[in-house]
Structures are given as structure tokens and as C-alpha cells.
């Protein structure tokens, strides 16, 4: 009985902790837009940030190349951000400038980098001496540098150029991107009869291939009815398409879904 009471007490404490944590797991700072398309004709862009919370926020912004190295001095990127650190009052916003520093980048394809926003909430003096959990939240969105020669089109407009094929029974779908644009996907899944099999949809770099494998190492069926994928466009919106089987192991877009 004593053991059961002790176990119940542990579960109760854990539950209360999760409730307290769940109230603060979402950051207050937001970035306008879910991606930045940086045209090769421009030298800078304005990025708008906003404090949706009820307390002042100190924020830091920077750009990285997607590597796991957190030492900013070791990262060589073509953009600087100013101001790099700022304070935002509740309900207010702060515009920052994303400046291209002239670093040489490929002109025959897009390049991708990441815009980071780290928010650090102020210390509550009333609980400064007590045990507490402090969280710093980081938001990341992609920056797509688009050379001047590629500005007349986009990945959404070149979706028909993607080549799709079944990778084999249980192995998902292979996608080949012969274009100079990055393709970002929200989701993808295989339909076989009445069953749906979610796939792990990856971003596909220019002139490369990726295989969308089944989630949770599940096996997809040998035969399928269709494949559905959701492509993210320049504005953060989602365009949905359906693929149907063709000769051999091929797949082709049969319709765009609304």
C-alpha cells in the first residue's frame, strides 16, 4: 500500500510538472512568414518579428548554414542581420535587416540558409531565488537565395519537372529533382485501396534525388492506387497533388487537389 501511494505521488508530481510546463512551451516571438526568398537582385530585405506575449522579450537573431556547429564565429554565411540583439515590448514588433554581404554563391541554382530567432524571457524577481525551469526558445525559418537568372520561376511552377517512381515494395517513393530550385514538402502518403501509408517527406536540393521512406519503418504495399504530396510554395502556402501509376515503376501527376 505504501508503495502504491509513493508511486501515485510520483505520477501526480510528474503530471503537475507537465501541466506547468505546457503553459510555457510555446515562444512569444513570431516571424512574419515561414520562409524568406532572397532575390539575387537585392542587397537586403526586412524581416518583421513580433512579441505576442505579455512580457518584454530580449531576442537574438542570426543566420546559419544548417550545420550543427553552434559557434557563430565558425560559420561562414552570406548574410548578416541587424540589429543582432534587441528588446521587444509586449504586443510590439521589431524589424530587422537581412543584408547580403557579397559572398560568392552559385548562380545556376538556389542556395539555402537558416534565419534564427532566439528569445530569452526576463527573470521574474519574485521567483528568482526559488527553484524554477527557464526556457529559451529558438525559431528557425529557411532563407532561399535565388540568383537573378532564376527569378522568373519557382519550385511550385516547376513541379511537373519532378520525376517520381516507386522505390520497391516497402521502400517508399523516389523523387528526382532536375531543376535548379529547392522543393520543400509539407507531407506525402501512399494510398492503397482504403489504406493510407504516411511517408517521411524531405526537402530536395537542386539536381538531386531523395527517397521518401515510410514512417516508423512500416512497409508500404507492393501495389498502390496513388501517391499524394503537399508542396510548400514561396509564400508558405501548400499546393496538393496526386500521382497515379504509369508504365513500369513510374508515377505521374494526375491532378492537383484543392
UniProtKB/TrEMBL annotation:
Annotated source species: Intestinirhabdus alba
Membrane spanning residue stretches: none
Main location class: periplasm
Domain Pili assembly chaperone N-terminal: 29-150
Domain (Pili assembly chaperone C-terminal) ranges: 175-239
GO biological process entries: cell wall organization
Protein location: Periplasm
Keyword annotations from UniProtKB, A to Z: Chaperone, Fimbrium biogenesis, Immunoglobulin domain, Periplasm, Signal
Keyword Signal: yes
The organism's place on the tree of life at top rank: Bacteria
GO CC terms: outer membrane-bounded periplasmic space
PROSITE patterns: PILI_CHAPERONE
Protein name per the record: Fimbria/pilus periplasmic chaperone
InterPro entries: Ig-like_fold (IPR013783), PapD-like_sf (IPR008962), Periplasmic_pilus_chap (IPR050643), Pili_assmbl_chap_C_dom_sf (IPR036316), Pili_assmbl_chaperone_bac (IPR001829), Pili_assmbl_chaperone_C (IPR016148), Pili_assmbl_chaperone_CS (IPR018046), Pili_assmbl_chaperone_N (IPR016147)
The family this protein is said to belong to: Belongs to the periplasmic pilus chaperone family.
One Pfam match: PapD_C
Amino acid at each position: 500500500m505504501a508503495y502504491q501511494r509513493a508511486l501515485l505521488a510520483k505520477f501526480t508530481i510528474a503530471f503537475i510538472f507537465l501541466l506547468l510546463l505546457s503553459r510555457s512551451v510555446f515562444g512569444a516571438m513570431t516571424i512574419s512568414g515561414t520562409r524568406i526568398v532572397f532575390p539575387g537582385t537585392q542587397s537586403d530585405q526586412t524581416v518583421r518579428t513580433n512579441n505576442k506575449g505579455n512580457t518584454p522579450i530580449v531576442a537574438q537573431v542570426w543566420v546559419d548554414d544548417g550545420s550543427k556547429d553552434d559557434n557563430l564565429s565558425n560559420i561562414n554565411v552570406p548574410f548578416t542581420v541587424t540589429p543582432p540583439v534587441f528588446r521587444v515590448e509586449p504586443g510590439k514588433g521589431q524589424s530587422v535587416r537581412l543584408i547580403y554581404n557579397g559572398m560568392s554563391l552559385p548562380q545556376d541554382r538556389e542556395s539555402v540558409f537558416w534565419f534564427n530567432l532566439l528569445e530569452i524571457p526576463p527573470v521574474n524577481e519574485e521567483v528568482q531565488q526559488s527553484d524554477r525551469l527557464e526556457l529559451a526558445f529558438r525559431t528557425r525559418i529557411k532563407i532561399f537565395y535565388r540568383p537573378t537568372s532564376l527569378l522568373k520561376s519557382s519550385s511550385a511552377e516547376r513541379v511537373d519537372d519532378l520525376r517520381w517512381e516507386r522505390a520497391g515494395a516497402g521502400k517508399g517513393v523516389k523523387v528526382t529533382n532536375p531543376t535548379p530550385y529547392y522543393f520543400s514538402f509539407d507531407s506525402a502518403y501512399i494510398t492503397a485501396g482504403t489504406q493510407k501509408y504516411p511517408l517521411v517527406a524531405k526537402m530536395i536540393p537542386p539536381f538531386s534525388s531523395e527517397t521518401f521512406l515510410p514512417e516508423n519503418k512500416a512497409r508500404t504495399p507492393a501495389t498502390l492506387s496513388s501517391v499524394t504530396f503537399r508542396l510548400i510554395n514561396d509564400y508558405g502556402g501548400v499546393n496538393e497533388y496526386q500521382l497515379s501509376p504509369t508504365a513500369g515503376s513510374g508515377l505521374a501527376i494526375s491532378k492537383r487537389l484543392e
